[in-house]
Amino acid sequence: xxxxxxxxxxxxxxxxxxDSQSDERSESSPSTAIQLDMARLLAEELREIxxxxxxxxxxxxxxxTVPATPGAEGAPVIGLLAHVDTAPAYNAxxxxxxxxxxxxxxxxxxxxxPDLVLSPEVSAYLGTKMGDDIITASGSTLLGADDxxxxxxxxxxxxxxxxxxxxxxxxxxxxxxxxxxVGRGVDRRLPADLGADFAYTFDGAGLGEIEYExxxxxxxxxxxxxxxxHPGWARGKLVNALHLAAKLVALLPQATMTPEVxxxxxxxxxxxxxxxxxxxxxLRFILRDFELEGLSAKGDLLRQAAAAVQATExxxxxxxxxxxxxxxxxxxxxxxxxxxxxxxxxxxxxxxxPVSVPIRGGTDGSRLTEMGVPTPNVFTGMQEIHGxxxxxxxxxxxxxxRVCLRIAENAAGEPSA
Length: 417
Prior knowledge:
Number of domains: 2
Distance between the termini: 23 Å
Structural class: alpha+beta
Strand order of the largest sheet: 1-2-8-3-9-15-10
Shape: globular
Low-confidence stretches: none
Radius of gyration: 23 Å
């Protein structure tokens, strides 16, 4: 193992054991107080390694500076970002990371879920990682490599730069954000507080990926208020909100427009939660498409379905509320690909081939780019995220550390060798 392998592994294993799950229903910022446990840990470690300007903002972002080396003060200021929260889609409490040394290509099993198996048949990318050290959880939780792998990568790179002043680089601004998983990772104040000319999120997947295109995203809530009545005397009185919710779902194009039947550049309309009673029900959706026209069309479909259900039962009240979340970063980055090309050159300098594929999701970079800070996304190695099969290669993370260092050098005008 290299020094980068050891450090990035140690950091990830330690970080994922800190519960920092976000909560989309919370109105606070950050959405959960436990995210501040991670923020305070990182702030302390940043001070220990010699970072400057370490602070935790009142909206929960850890900010710090790696000062420019002498002679590089005029280089562009680069932001390096990762998010501290883990997805609320699956249990993230009590994570027990496991390191599988020198992966042999066979199935990986889990002590806390005997029927759970990770293998190349389940996760094809795993088949390319023979000999790597693979980190998983124990089966009852997600791992949290999304995005604590990114946190570990940036922290490792920052410590190396601060300890090796002979590596020429401009000013780097580090930002560790909360609430990315619930679409609230970029506060309106962050671009000014970050103070970067351009930035990179380390929140990507496979080795060599440099992403500059993401979904455009909206979130939707359909609220259905029925008429409550005692079921024994409900004839002609009860209007069951849950039945109306089922009608609405049945009206949507489930065979062609849900996540489980789409891929590539196809968007989707995803119902991810239904709650309620016969008196009132709430359906939560996410809408995704790479083009704004397609996103708008999906919103229209949902509104039409809500209107059709309303028309069948005038005694009920059906309300469809659609709100923007983020937009495809390509709309801005394609106007100036300099940050993307700097990252691609860094990947090539590590003997890898850069890969740019559309992200079937979004990052804090999507919002930052829209707000004026061009921010492509860089690989971390994380795979099968948001569930118990989540895993990451230590060697992929170490490669991302090296690419991060190359990006810092390249942006300062120091060509990669």
